[in-house]
């Protein structure tokens, strides 16, 4: 529609992303940040309670939150490691090792470039 109003959509989109389960970690970023499921407008529409757990004290709440977050971090790390291994295996099945022989032409990255060099050649022709 009106592309000049894009900034009005950033916050709702970020919130939607943060409330969506991540395939790699298995958790929504919101859960890993706050230690609980987000409360969404759809929860009110279905009549779900806003306060699920009653705690006796603030310290009890803090202890429970700390334990929940630690367990979530452990699971998210384990899930991310499993996904990284799976992605590596998938990548390794498609990659073919290359053999270089003396005299083969190769590109050498020009590492001396610093700063703004958008249009500069990133590869050296001669060594």
UniProtKB/TrEMBL annotation:
* InterPro entries associated with the record: Retrovirus_Pol_polyprotein (IPR050951), RNaseH_sf (IPR036397)
Transmembrane region(s): none
Recorded GO molecular functions are: nucleic acid binding
Origin superkingdom? Eukaryota
- The name under which this protein is listed is Gypsy retrotransposon integrase 1
Please spell out the taxonomic lineage of the organism that makes this protein.
Answer: Eukaryota, Metazoa, Chordata, Craniata, Vertebrata
